[in-house]
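Sample pair:
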Amino acid sequence: MKLLGLIGGTSWVSTGEYYRLLNEGVNRRLGDPQFARCLIFSFNYADILALNAKQDWDAIFELVAAACLHHRDAGAEGIVLCANTMHLIADRVQERVGLPVIHIADATAEAIRRAGLTTVALLGTRFTMEKEFFRERLASRGIEAVIPEEADREFIHTTIFGELGTGNFLPATKARYLSIIDDLAAKGAEGAILGCTEIPMLIKQSDCAIPLFDTTAIHVDAAIEFALGE
C-alpha cells in the first residue's frame, strides 16, 4: 500500500471527512484490520483565507509546495490536496514536488462520464466556479459545466468560507443551495457537482432529484485506487 500525503486544514472540517472516508474505504476493500497509510499536513485556515482574499496564488503555492515536500521527505508516494480550490495550483505542485497529485477534477470528470452525463452544474468557491482549472478538465472529456448566476455564486462563496468551513451547517443555507441546484436543473443541468469539499456535508443525494457528484468521496476513491494499485 502506497503512503499518501494529505494536504488539509482547508478546512479541517472536510479534512476530517477525508481521513474518515479514506480509512473506511481501505478497510472496505481489504478487510480488518487494514486501514490507510497516510500523512496529514493541516494548515491554519486563517492563513489560507487571508491569501485567498488577495488571490495570492503564488504565496499559496509556496505554502502548499513546502508542505508537500515535507510529505515527500517523509516517504509519501502521492499527494492528495483536500480541497477543490487548491487544485488551481495542482499542476505546479506536481512539477515542483515530483510526486503524483491525484487531481479531484479528473476523478470527478471520470465519474460523470461513467454516469453518461454531458451537462452538469458546478457549485464551489467563486474560484472553482469561475476559473478554468476545473471546467477545462471536464470539457476535455466532453462535459459542459454550468454555473449559477452572480448573486448565487456570491452566496455560495460567502457561505463556504463563513459557515461550512467552520462546521456551521444552517437549514436556511441548505434550502438556498437546493434552490440553486433546482434552478440549474431547470436550465438543463443533468447532474450537479458538489465542488467544494464541505458542500457534501450540507447536501445529500436524498435531497435532490438529479444525480449529485460528491467530490470528496470521488477524490478519496481515486486516492484509494492509487494507494492500492501497482
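The first strand starts at residue 4 and ends at 8.
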